[in-house]
Amino acid sequence: MELTKKNIENIKTWLKNNLDEERYKHTLGVASCAEELALKYDLNPKKAYIAGLMHDCAKCFSKDVSKSYFDKVDILEEEKINYKTWHAPIGAFIAKTEFGIDDDEILSAIRWHTLGKINMTLFEKIIFLADKIETETRDCEWCKCNRELLEQENGLNKTLLNCYRATLKSLCERNLKICKLTVDIYNNLLDNI
Question: Under DSSP, is residue 131 helix (H, G, I), strand (E, B) or coil?
Fold first, then answer.
């Protein structure tokens, strides 16, 4: 897919029709933050914007609709334990099949923006973090803290670790199951800080 202004407007129209108002606002914030982080880390800002724009495209699907995609997408068995993560692999599928996005870097960043993975690429890391630290819908103090961490030595990994720590705490507080991969990534980040 050529990333033209018209294509971006088509994506935004589809998102407006398939996301609730708050999720759409978050999506625009992630796209903007992803673009900003891409510029900071000398990556392609247009690709980052598209990945940010598409990252939650399947977030507002019902559980039944989401489950209907399971045989079409690459979803881990352990990933199925928490419906909050289903939209990531489904979103990558939607980006590819509905919008013709064929850039592997964009698709992988969409695919792994919720769980993450061990040894994420720089591009995957910035999309993951843009989702957590965009300033349109996220808590201002949380964003400020994480943006300060980004400026430190090894700041990307420190910020990722901080986000995983918060995720684990939140999952425990809400009595939601925790994917083993999340724990493995957390441990790996601890080893690399």
Answer: helix
- Tell me which residue of 176, 169, 192 sits closest to 160, measured CA to CA: 192
Is 82 part of any domain?
yes
The pTM is what? 0.94
Q: What's the CA gap between 40 and 31, in Å, rounded?
A: 14
The answer to whether position 168 is within a domain reads no
Backbone angles phi, psi at 72, to 5 degrees: -105, -15
d(CA 157, CA 52): 19
**Total domains in the fold of the chain:** 1
Instruction: Render the burial of 110-134: b for 16+ CB within 10 Å, e for the rest.
Output: bbbbbbbeeebeebbbbbbbbbbbb
**The domain spanning residue 42 has which CATH number?**
1.10.3210.10
Phi/psi of residue 150, each to 5°? -60, -30
Res 169 pLDDT > 60:
yes
Res 147 pLDDT > 60: yes
Under DSSP, the state recorded for 77 is: T
